[in-house]
Specification:
The protein is 73% helix and 0% strand. The protein is mostly helical.
Length: 303
Amino acid sequence: MKSIRLFVQLSRPLHILSAILVYLLGISLAHYLTGQTDWKSLIYGLAWIILLLLAAQYFNEYFDPQALVNDPVRKHTPFSGVSAALGSGKLPRPVALWAGLTCLAFAASLTVLLMQFMHNKQAVLFIYGVILMAELFYALPPFRLVSSGYGEFLLSIITVALVPALAYLMQVHEMHRLLAMVVFPLTTLHISMLLALEFPDYASDIRQEKRSMLVRVGWQRGMLLHNVLILLSFVILGLAFILGLPLSVAWPIILVLPVALYQVWMMNRIADGAKPNWNLLILIAIASFGLAGYILTFAFWTH
């Protein structure tokens, strides 16, 4: 049981669940526009995305020099920093490498199967290639953009922009402006969530010279950027409504605004010197993104 728990911890299910959510958003938008759903493409495409994201996560853990470091300063949470699943008394480090290679092999097999019945092959293959290359650049040396301070932006673009675009194009033959209208605000909200996840490990990341986005910009500018990104998400949604986002889709997202504003208020309190409750902040950050993605997905699917 301990090995299973550690392997789940190694897989970082939060990022996989985020990808599943926005993948279903792309599917629901296609259903909203066409009234149809190709369930075979949905299942195979989702499996491909999950396998590729898992492979990148395992490679990231294997090549991360901090994965085996026991730092007493690190305030590990289930969602931030390294998974802490590798090392003495835990999973052997090679487990991460072999798990990543296995996921890549299964993803390659699924690609062959998908191409046999996919109608929009060129566009889908292009996005496949972009996601694959971006994930490899994100996790593998010598690039390892995850440790460059820009990896969070790349991860958000992959997860929140490319994944729903792929899901949508596997159902529909051409892009639609509604996709951009919902993807852009969710991307900025996702980046703010990733920033919030990095605050508990800020001191440890500095000690170990890890170049996360928060370390690159500094904690003060990081707090400001976190708040600006959240507010920008709702500004973009407002502009999307003016430009044609249906009211039936736009108005439910207002329900997320109080949660997001509470997240901004919490960050401002910490900036003013209040004792941080990192677990609550992370929970609220995840809730803001998760609720926004779920409400948009539900609204498209039911209208």
